[in-house]
């Protein structure tokens, strides 16, 4: 795996007027850190834009990054239970639930993570994982097509069912974390109970006439947007922001029922070979300056309420407290029923 001893660091410093709870008072960490997370641009940006400043601050010289999706990484944590090679898990809320239940994550030494004090108690769901950012899921829509057809911007999750979108709506398959968040949100809207998954799946079954496709990957959905085949779809804010930066006319609408989404979380692997470096890394991710890096580089909405979002980005990064968070423990308990119901009522109709 590629290390991160070199790279161009992005520094936001004190000029932003934001102070972290604590910084250089951290104890001397080990000289190596092994983290796991998604690959691609996220891995590259962590290695080149986020790790170098951490290295200079804490003296951790070597980063080893293990890339994979949630299920792949969870399998690795389980396989290495008795002799882990990874220090830090960087995962979504649903993977956190599985890793915590399996006893794969260690309880934090809070004294080593002073910036955890900045996270509201309502944002902390586990003693073995801390959120570092939020992926808000809203409605992406092609602003050019909407203007051409005289359509108002979508204002509700239920806009997906409007007849004018017949054959031009899209959704991601249930293996995607955002798709699970959508199911919970629909259950909440339709019945007031996010656990009523049957009601949500029944409503999604009725969406088939409007769907151009159920997409197996975010990249495939991106391509359908760019080709003007899909006009409207639930997706994370980061995708809309990436489209904007690329000059593609894709807007990001906040449904009147609110955003749904999921948190990006970190945890120390139980028996981690470099526990001090692991705790230092998590504390660093929660510093105000790093929170801004995570927002601007990776598209994660800050978990800290004291972070001021640039005015032109506020529509992409709602406060974490305003993002509907599914009951991931319940979804984990009923994963088989959810997948079976989705396959029977949504996928098999294609």
UniProtKB/TrEMBL annotation:
<dbReference type="InterPro" id="IPR006059">
    <property type="entry name" value="SBP"/>
</dbReference>
<dbReference type="Pfam" id="PF13416">
    <property type="entry name" value="SBP_bac_8"/>
</dbReference>
<keyword id="KW-0732">Signal</keyword>
<protein>
    <submittedName>
        <fullName>ABC transporter substrate-binding protein</fullName>
    </submittedName>
</protein>
């Amino acid at each position: 795996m590629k290390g991160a001893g070199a790279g161009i660091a992005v520094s936001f410093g004190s000029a932003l007027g934001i102070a972290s709870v604590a910084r250089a008072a951290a104890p001397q960490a080990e000289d190596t850190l092994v983290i796991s997370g998604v690959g691609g641009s996220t891995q590259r940006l962590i290695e080149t834009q986020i790790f170098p400043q951490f290295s200079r601050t804490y003296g951790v010289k070597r980063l080893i990054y293990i890339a994979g999706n949630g299920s792949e990484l969870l399998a690795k944590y389980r396989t290495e239970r008795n002799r882990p090679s990874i220090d830090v898990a960087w995962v979504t809320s649903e993977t956190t639930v599985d890793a915590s239940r399996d006893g794969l994550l260690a309880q934090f030494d809070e004294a080593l993570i002073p910036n955890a004090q900045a996270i509201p108690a309502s944002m902390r769901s586990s003693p073995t994982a801390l959120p570092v950012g939020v992926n808000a899921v809203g409605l992406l829509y092609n602003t050019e097509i909407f203007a051409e057809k005289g359509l108002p911007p979508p204002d509700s999750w239920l806009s997906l069912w409007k007849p004018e979108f017949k054959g031009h709506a899209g959704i991601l398959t249930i293996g995607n974390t955002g798709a699970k968040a959508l199911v919970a949100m629909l259950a909440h809207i339709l019945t007031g109970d996010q656990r009523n998954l049957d009601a949500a799946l029944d409503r999604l079954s009725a969406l088939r006439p409007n769907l151009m496709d159920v997409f197996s990957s975010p990249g495939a959905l991106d391509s359908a947007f760019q080709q003007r085949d899909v006009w409207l779809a639930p997706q994370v804010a980061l995708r809309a922001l990436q489209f904007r930066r690329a000059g593609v006319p894709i807007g990001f609408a906040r449904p009147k029922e609110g955003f749904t989404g999921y948190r990006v979380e970190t945890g120390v692997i139980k028996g981690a070979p470099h526990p001090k470096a692991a705790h230092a890394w998590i504390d660093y991710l929660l510093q105000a300056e790093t929170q801004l890096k995570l927002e601007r580089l990776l598209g994660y909405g800050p978990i800290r309420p004291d972070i001021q979002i640039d005015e032109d980005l506020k529509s992409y990064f709602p406060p974490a407290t305003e993002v509907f968070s599914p009951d991931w423990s319940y979804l984990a308990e009923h994963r088989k029923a959810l997948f079976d119901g989705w396959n029977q009522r949504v996928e098999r109709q294609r």
